[in-house]
Amino acid sequence: MYQATTDKQLIKNIPDGGILTPKGFQCGGVHAGLRYTKLDLGMIVSEELASCAAVYTTSHFQAAPLVVTQESIAKEQLLQAIVVNSACANACTGEQGYQDALKMRSLAAEKIGVPEHHVAVASTGVIGEFMQMEKIQNGIGKLSVGKAIEDAKDFQTAILTTDTVMKSCCYSAEIDGVTVSMGGAAKGSGMIHPNMATMLGFLTTDAKVSSEHLTAALKEVTNTTFNQITVDGDTSTNDMVLVMANGTAGNQPLDPTHPDWTVFMELLKESCASLAKQIAKDGEGATKLIEISVAGAMSDEEARMIGKQIAGSNLVKTAVYGADANWGRIIGAIGQSPSSINPKTVDIYLGEMAMLKGSTPVDFDEDEAREYLLNDKVEIFVDLHLGDGKGMAWGCDLSYDYVKINASYRT
């Protein structure tokens, strides 16, 4: 619904790329025994000390790995590695959980020969269970990292929980006459309703940019990407997105005064948006990605609020699952939003098909609408006709399988 910006047109998608495409990174994954057979422990290593930035869940119950990662970054604002496990969230585990996260950090640091505070820690899995530290120690001991495609796949597999697919992306752009790349890997399928971050997302880039400016950039981009997805309305205790920038591309240091700063921001935005949409599409039990575009709001923030209200509505989600073109579910979701609304000026489109114009019903072909809703991506467009604000949000349909998956999550 929106025209691409000049900067966006400068961004190149690399379909077969990923977290190892940027220069100077290695990764890997191993089966430590936290899960029955699947890989469950992974690591990303930068060959050079890297600038870094992270955003975290705003849950009052931040998991121990997030606390330790924040302590690591606070020391120098620099990182060289991220160690991640699945199967156990190490959340709500008290002092023992904190000590286990510290131990996990120290083991990883010793493995690659760097100071402990140059290592970040992340965990995902069941809340309230203690880490099996003997298995973690043995797993880190046999973990190896490399630059091959299989190494990237091993890492991406090791971080998954109820995900059905790996999630990755890679984009590049020319900055200062050199190619700068950004790769990403993420996990997330359930307990998805981010507030400052989402699930686990890791981004690598060979751009040269300070941690200060990278942090500001990530926070800004998160608000329009990761924070605009929802699967089930629940924010996790372990949500984190972390970026490492090792500067090996050879560009001049990036900051908001750099002529290519907006290109870098678009590179970061495209990467985050890609991972966010992949997470939404792979929602637990989901069969369809729902993309909401809102225009004509009083501000971009209000447009994003309305978009996420629609994407998070269980009635909208179940209607999409059932291929029922009941636009009343959409108007009901809009009506709940605290954003400014004129109940006489709202337009709603399902794909290219008008449902409502000026808050007045429009005749449409029910069979055509049903056929459209059977696609694996459903687009909903809303125009409020109040201002220039616009925004997007992403979600998924709600199927019977969501209940099945979560009714037996621990078994």
UniProtKB/TrEMBL annotation:
<feature type="binding site">
    <location>
        <position position="198"/>
    </location>
    <ligand>
        <name>substrate</name>
    </ligand>
</feature>
<comment type="pathway">
    <text>Amino-acid biosynthesis; L-arginine biosynthesis; L-ornithine and N-acetyl-L-glutamate from L-glutamate and N(2)-acetyl-L-ornithine (cyclic): step 1/1.</text>
</comment>
<feature type="binding site">
    <location>
        <position position="406"/>
    </location>
    <ligand>
        <name>substrate</name>
    </ligand>
</feature>
<feature type="site" description="Involved in the stabilization of negative charge on the oxyanion by the formation of the oxyanion hole">
    <location>
        <position position="124"/>
    </location>
</feature>
<keyword id="KW-0012">Acyltransferase</keyword>
<feature type="binding site">
    <location>
        <position position="411"/>
    </location>
    <ligand>
        <name>substrate</name>
    </ligand>
</feature>
<comment type="subunit">
    <text>Heterotetramer of two alpha and two beta chains.</text>
</comment>
<keyword id="KW-0068">Autocatalytic cleavage</keyword>
<comment type="function">
    <text>Catalyzes two activities which are involved in the cyclic version of arginine biosynthesis: the synthesis of N-acetylglutamate from glutamate and acetyl-CoA as the acetyl donor, and of ornithine by transacetylation between N(2)-acetylornithine and glutamate.</text>
</comment>
<dbReference type="GO" id="GO:0004358">
    <property type="term" value="F:L-glutamate N-acetyltransferase activity, acting on acetyl-L-ornithine as donor"/>
</dbReference>
<feature type="binding site">
    <location>
        <position position="284"/>
    </location>
    <ligand>
        <name>substrate</name>
    </ligand>
</feature>
<keyword id="KW-0028">Amino-acid biosynthesis</keyword>
<keyword id="KW-0808">Transferase</keyword>
<dbReference type="InterPro" id="IPR002813">
    <property type="entry name" value="Arg_biosynth_ArgJ"/>
</dbReference>
<feature type="site" description="Involved in the stabilization of negative charge on the oxyanion by the formation of the oxyanion hole">
    <location>
        <position position="125"/>
    </location>
</feature>
<comment type="similarity">
    <text>Belongs to the ArgJ family.</text>
</comment>
<feature type="binding site">
    <location>
        <position position="161"/>
    </location>
    <ligand>
        <name>substrate</name>
    </ligand>
</feature>
<comment type="pathway">
    <text>Amino-acid biosynthesis; L-arginine biosynthesis; N(2)-acetyl-L-ornithine from L-glutamate: step 1/4.</text>
</comment>
<feature type="active site" description="Nucleophile">
    <location>
        <position position="198"/>
    </location>
</feature>
<dbReference type="InterPro" id="IPR016117">
    <property type="entry name" value="ArgJ-like_dom_sf"/>
</dbReference>
<feature type="site" description="Cleavage; by autolysis">
    <location>
        <begin position="197"/>
        <end position="198"/>
    </location>
</feature>
<dbReference type="Pfam" id="PF01960">
    <property type="entry name" value="ArgJ"/>
</dbReference>
<feature type="binding site">
    <location>
        <position position="187"/>
    </location>
    <ligand>
        <name>substrate</name>
    </ligand>
</feature>
<keyword id="KW-0055">Arginine biosynthesis</keyword>
<protein>
    <recommendedName>
        <fullName>Arginine biosynthesis bifunctional protein ArgJ</fullName>
        <ecNumber>2.3.1.35</ecNumber>
        <ecNumber>2.3.1.1</ecNumber>
    </recommendedName>
</protein>
<dbReference type="InterPro" id="IPR042195">
    <property type="entry name" value="ArgJ_beta_C"/>
</dbReference>
<keyword id="KW-0511">Multifunctional enzyme</keyword>
<keyword id="KW-0963">Cytoplasm</keyword>
